[in-house]
Amino acid sequence: MGKPTSIKTSEEVRDRLRVLAEERGTTITELLKELAARELTAAEREQQAAEAARELGVDYTEQLRQAGQDAWARIRAHQGGAAA
Questions:
Q1: Residue 47 has what DSSP assignment?
Q2: Which DSSP category does 39 fall into?
Q3: Which of 7, 8, 21, 49 could form a disulfide with 31 if both were Cys (CB 3.0 to 4.6 A apart)?
Q4: 8-61 per-position pLDDT tens digit
Q5: What Rg do the C-alpha atoms of the chain give, in angstroms?
């Protein structure tokens, strides 16, 4: 484990994190660690997309990248999420 640090947040968020951690039998630190490990960065998503295209025998061009982003934006819009 790295050097401990602090994160500033509202009491409401802290309290919710505490409840979620308690329900899972863990700590807020471990809960945040799990969340951070589960989410991919933009660079990691790009790498996975390029690897998937390669496995399919497709060149990962800018056009393919944009088509993929557009497709996911439409999916999020239909799920009621932000279409960013």
A1: H
A2: S
A3: 21
A4: 999 999 999 999 999 999 999 999 999 999 988 989 989 999 999 999 999 999
A5: 18
